[in-house]
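Final report, closing paragraph on structural work. Over the funding period we assembled a curated collection of sequence-structure pairs, and we close with a single example.
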Amino acid sequence: MEAPAKNLDGTVQLVSDQGVILIPTPSADPRDPLNIPLWQKLVILGTTCLYSTMGLTAVSGLGGILGEFIPTYAAQGKTYADISNLMTFPSLFMGIGNMISMPLALAVGRRPVFLGSCVIQVVSLILCATNQGYAWHFAARCILGLAAGQSEALCPLMISEVFFLHERARYQQFFSSIQTIISGTLIILTSYIASTVGWRAWYYLFAGFSGLVLLLATFFIPETKYVRPLAAYEGMGADKDGNETIPVRSDVENPKQAQQFMTIHDERVLDTVNYLPRTLASDMALFVNEADWSEAISCVKHQCQLFFFPDVFWVFSMNGIFLGVNIAMGLTYGNILGEAYHWAHQYISIAMSGQIVVAFVCIPMLGYGSDFIVKFMARRKGGIHEPEHRLLTLITPLLLGILFSVIYGQAAAHPEKYHWMAIVITINGYFFTFVGANTAGITYLLDAYPTRGASCLVMICAMRGVISFALSYGTVSLYSKHGYDGAFGLFGGITAAFGALGVVVYFTGKRIRRFVSPWTQVENTAKATMG
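Its predicted structure, as stored:
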């Protein structure tokens, strides 16, 4: 018998006098992903991170060697805009890939979809390396985009399913920062690899590492989908049949009050009598859950609904614009440094090395900082956590993004007035703005709509892919007509506008969540999923 429908608006009690409350509440099942030992959770984090790095670097790192293709493809009648499409179109296909793969992952499980994506990524990279012309290369990179897209939705979803709310931001930021450190190192080496052993070897390098990811994922990444009652997302306990217990309550005036929740200090005892143990064989099983195609259909329906939620619309639009500006800088910095600042071709990709520094800065500021803020604010509000507190970490990235965008445009348009460091600092600095928007946006929506997590991630990644594609696709014509200063001055103004909208979302977010709660209603509270 199904439990009745219920609304969940994202406001939960996170802190009690007994300590930080575990949300979602873990079950006693040894095969519950929340009960996976920390070392295996870190292996999952590392493997998905390596997968993401190989895909995203192959998609976005082409800017440093784009000049290698100009003579060959120009001889085939291709313009610079056509050659730039080798970077812009894969970004669009990353969004399309998310819209295809996420409903599949909800229906059949995360593991089979992730392993399938690993295979596609290896094959597409080999096709890129062996291409014999522009059309072949373009098609292979679009296929690569379909696979690489999992790094932006499926991978963060899998990570969120093995960690708790109070540690969500730090591990999402570890995922992003480690990815950036490895990616930044590879981008630095991009020009050297292309100029010494050729760009085909560059692709083969990523294909080899992607093959290693496939091998690691086969043995060490278990299924992370787990069906929980709605009670678990509210910090309640639940019995083996999914029946809810009493809601979280904590009364500091009554220390004898019965505790109806689980904190980080409580011992977690696994039930090996009523549940099967976790083994290597169970972890390696391709299909763990019975396929539920209704979840795939619901995911599509939820995406359509979420599109019209004001806070969700703001998050994916902001991410799309910031990613588009980041791609626009990636498309132009090579020519600017080479032609205006007279850098040797083999040294151009070194300009991106600042992203490694950014990655280290992001871990304490955006990762641990976000988790610290939500716990600090919860204690100030009687233990209650509001998802909007995640947005406080956006303040610094937004202010810097406005400044960096304007300076980049000025330095590109007037090289006689600026040092080349203006280009190097701003291109890496704006990356910090994008990472800040990405981390804050993902953690905010996962906290605000816990039973729509997968759909929220797809909306962020798919729509930002479309928006960033449209923005970066028009970059060449925009700066051709209005100059670099006009184009990136406009981007700075847009960044400021989204920062202003963020203030509105911060103060009205709770009312928005309550208003849209009828459309986030969980039909069966005994089976609340991440769809």
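Residues 53 and 179 are 5 Å apart (CA to CA). Residues 237-259 have pLDDT under 50 and may be disordered. We thank the funder for supporting this effort.
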